[in-house]
């Protein structure tokens, strides 16, 4: 006679369903991962440009004569550099915001799968906000590049 051993009931189909959901979320999070790489590259480019603007501002500031002050050309260049720096700063701000929103998209997708909660609208909304943020960042970057090119071609003597 074999002893009557009771096995705990394991939710086989339920556990398999969660694993399938998580696997699917991992597959779907690959595209946002590539998007994060692109955003990181943009932030690196913007940071480099901001560094160059700051360096140039220091050079222009060092040319100021303490007795006579800045010439009109130096004041104009300084104003342009400040404007370019502001554009780059806000581009970095929106690029980082976009990257954070993409991270929230991935986190929300995983939370939805783990908790079996429908977060499709939240994920879609966060993704749309991330894309809007990136459009703003790229637009600001383009504006700064335009100013840099315009100043380089119009201030030659």
List the helices and strands and how they pair.
Blueprint: H1 12-28, H2 30-62, H3 72-115, H4 120-154
Helix pairs in contact: 1-3, 2-3, 3-4
Helix content: over 70%
Low-confidence stretches: none
Radius of gyration: 26 Å
Secondary-structure element string:
HHHH
- Protein structure class: mainly alpha
The total strand number stands at 0
Amino- and carboxy-terminal Cα gap: 105 Å
**How would you sum up the major sheet?**
none
- The number of distinct helices, counting runs of at least 4 residues, comes to 4
As a percent range, the share of strand residues is under 5%
- Form type: rod-shaped
- The average pLDDT value, as a whole number, equals 85
Report on the structure:
- With 157 residues, the chain is mainly alpha-helical.
- It contains four helices and no strands.
- Helix 1 (12-28) runs antiparallel to helix 3 (72-115) and helix 2 (30-62) packs antiparallel against helix 3.
- The N and C termini lie far apart (105 Å).
Attribute tags:
157 residues, mainly alpha, 4 helices
Concise summary:
The protein has 4 helices and no strands.
